[in-house]
């Protein structure tokens, strides 16, 4: 079972009232984020702060429109439903993770927020039967598209050295979401989770062929499991993470690769030669994961090192102790 997934609703299962309630809470959250950005930029970039403040006010206006529509259709009581209650729904980063990273990063976050909101409103409008509600949701999708353009123009006056265009930023972000993120999760799972069974078998039997077969089975089994889990967890429509098939392939293949990396050396008949090579490969795998986390996921290097290398070392030690005990 995917942690936290079973308790979440799919978007297709939401009623029209729940969709409106979700839109209301999302607009409120986005307005708060934009006001935080505006406050952070006010001293150094007052014009950009004014843009974010204006965007926050527009989000407030959207929220009021949605509330009025909810009152007209369903009454005063609005159900409590938020992004985290819906499977595959796009998530907002905690604002403290981006507020100190400059105008360029805030601009990128704002573009992503508006693009995701536009996709949500378009899908919600398509699923709504009530004509007035559909019109409102369609108008909001158009408004969010204008917001995305406005967010994309924020850096022109302040970031003259920026060479990236909107299409390049969008393509890079999509590449990270569709391929790098699930692939990294798979590589971590395959590299770390198979350490214990492979090295426990190696030190318990000192039979290289048996160890290879155990490693091969663990790697392929983990790859299939991770691939199907990624496909089932999120259809990518609302989260913007792209095709679930592509993400599943990335997660499944990289999980298998991570497990096979330190299983393949046991095709070498000599036990200690195979083991030394396997340990060296584990070392390379763990540092590769640290580099990818730091390069693409913007995880601080020391934190990534602590999480991955220490965690892998503990799993490796557990396998050796269990197998040699």
Work out the radius of gyration.
24 Å
Principal-axes shape call: elongated
Distance between the ends: 32 Å
Tell me how many strands there are: 2
Q: How many separate helices?
A: 10
Give me the strand/helix succession. Answer: EHHEHHHHHHHH
Give the strand line-up of the largest sheet. Answer: 1-2
Helical amount: over 70%
Low-confidence stretches: 1-6, 162-167
Total number of distinct structural domains: 2
Main sheet makeup: 2 strands, parallel
* Mean pLDDT rating: 83
Beta-strand fraction estimate: under 5%
Structural class: mainly alpha
What's the oligomerization state?
single chain
Q: What would you say this structure looks like, in words?
A:
The protein has 325 residues and is an all-alpha fold. It folds into two domains: 9-157, Ferritin; 167-324, no CATH class. Helices cover 72% and strands 1% of the residues. The protein has ten helices and two strands; from the N terminus they run βααβαααααααα. It has helices at 16-41, 46-74, 102-126, 131-152, 166-193, 195-205, 208-233, 244-261, 271-296, 301-324, and strands at 9-10, 86-87. It has a two-stranded parallel sheet. α1 (16-41) packs antiparallel against α2 and α5 crosses α7.
